[in-house]
Amino acid sequence: MAPRPVSRIAGHFDLSPNCPSDCADKSSHRFGGYGLMGRLKRIFLWLLVIYISVPFIVKLCPSIQAKLVFLNFVRLPYFIDLKRPQDQGLNHTINFYLQPEPGINIGVWHTVPSQMWKEAQGKDREWYDSTFKSPNPVIMYLHGNAGTRGGDHRVQLYKVLSGLGYHVVTFDYRGWGDSDGSPSERGMTSDALFLYQWLKLKAGSKPLHLWGHSLGTGVASNLARHLCDRGIPPDSLILESPFTNIREEAKSHPFSMVYRYLPVELWDCVCILMIQNIVLIVEHISCPLLILHAEDDSVVPFQLGKKLYDMASQSKSLVGHKVQFIPFPFSLAYKHKFIYRSPELPHILSNFFGMTHPQA
Ligand SMILES: *[C@@H]1O[C@H](CO)[C@@H](O)[C@H](O)[C@H]1NC(C)=O
Q1: What single string gives the DSSP state of each residue in 288-348?
Q2: For ligand 1, is residue 315 a contact (CB within 6 Å)?
Q3: For the domain 69-353, what is the CATH code?
């Protein structure tokens, strides 16, 4: 069977000797009518029309804009079964579903401190819930756009944190992964709040930290603000590769590089998703804040994290709380997703938490 297609391909390439006369004929034909310059002009005009109309289409169709920001339809890797975290090398993780609203089930993973991995084999939800009684602190992880709670860079971070002795609880917002519903800013925040309250009941007086990555830094900050407003701040807020607000992020995202020179006012009128304005939110947060950002991040530029830190360090509500900014140099190449690789991370975290990790 194999030789046939091969010979057909070869046959196809064999056409080339006939080509010179053939091609010359065709091209003189093709360009004869309009002339090369005329054709190029038409192409250029079309590109110009597309270039100018895209922002307006995006502006007029909020659903396109939301899709571009959320990217929840991008499910990478495609074939992972979120019911089986063990397939991702997480042998001490359970998958389950919570219902923040009638008809909306969201998928959750609970990874116990890795020292419990042997005990965890074959255990059910009840056993996992009972492990919250251990003194180990809990980290609630809020992932960024695109992909699911099973994305590899996320899984690697759960491994690092559970290896230090923390419970890690992560979930897919409605509209992501196997969670029901469609994505919205309101939905993300209310799912996060629901899970936080659920965890707070389980964790009791143990530390409960929030960790947001990328778009999840907007959700985590928003959640922290809600909690601070209610007088029940989280134990800390960790923002990995955060942005400042969606406008600045949209402006600096590689996909919109061709539009980077649009005047700021135009961006303002194009951007409709505004609530996740972290710069404004940090004015209302009062809990320890840690910002991690790689200098070579091309998805959310380093300058945005730095700017956020500058604003946070002037924020009145954060006075008296630890506010730290940890840049990761260009040479380490951690980019947007690989800060978990830093051998310094355990030290950075114990320094920030002001205590040694439960598991050395
Ligand atoms: C289970 O996971 C733990 C923690 O990541 C690891 O140390 C251990 O080797 C794993 N065990 C198996 C059988 O894969």
Answers
A1: -EEEEEETT-TTTTHHHHHHHHHHHHH-GGGTTS-EEEEEE-GGG--TTT-GGG-TTHHHH
A2: no
A3: 3.40.50.1820
